[in-house]
Amino acid sequence: MKSVGSFSSFVVISIISPAFAFPSLGSCNNVSGIDNFDVSSYLGVWYEYSNLFEVFQIGGKCIRANYTLREDEKIGVKNEAVNEWFGNYYFVEGTGSFADPANPTKGELVVSFAGTPNVGTAGTRATAKANYIVVDTDYTSYTIVYSCKNIFFARKESLWILTRAQKPDQSIIDTAYGKASELGLPVSSLRVTDQDGCSALP
Question: What is the pLDDT of residues 5-48, one digit of tens each?
Fold first, then answer.
């Protein structure tokens, strides 16, 4: 097993670094996290079914994330993958916190890893800008995670469809894609993640 802190060739789901997100013209969609977000039901393993192209995920397959509740009440994040060229197993660990600590039932979080700064106003977590927005989930089969940043006349978007099953039923995918489409998210640009040949995952 190998842990790589910077992990430039593979950093999955929750890092959501806007500098590497999918660029397109226009401003960000007015999408917010779900209300009544139940973090305890959200914890556990999620597999990446599809995502927008991310530079930092090049060469990664069998991508999954495991969320746990730490003793300090932050969310532990462990993202894992297998290098599709060499078959090596990689992982990176970080933490997640609610963007607004006063509202822990809003599905908007700030996730960071060693060497990657949180996005927000210095001196207060209450003003932190969410970089992991749960726009829809049923907790048991799928979740839709989104992030977007306006830069001049363009926007940089990240979008992930995650599933509890490594190879979910098509009906689950149809539901998730339908929800994402209703929210005006760039579903047509999603790329399906390779979840075959994953024996290197522990």
Answer: 333 333 333 333 333 444 567 778 889 999 999 999 999 999 99
Element (H, E) at 75: strand 75-83
Report the domain count for the chain: 1
Q: Which DSSP state fits 29?
A: P
Q: Are 41 and 179 in contact (CB under 8 A)?
A: no
Residue 41: in which H helix or E strand, if any? helix 39-42
Let me know if residue 40 belongs to a domain: yes
Between 192 and 56, name the one with better pLDDT. 192
Whether the pLDDT of residue 164 is over 90: the answer is: yes
197 is a domain residue: no
Task: Please state, in angstroms and rounded to a whole number, the distance separating the CA atoms of residues 114 and 76.
Answer: 13
- The two tokens of residue 198 are 């994953």
**Considering Cα of 28, then 24, then 48, then 12, what sign does the dihedral take?**
negative
* CATH for 21: 2.40.128.20
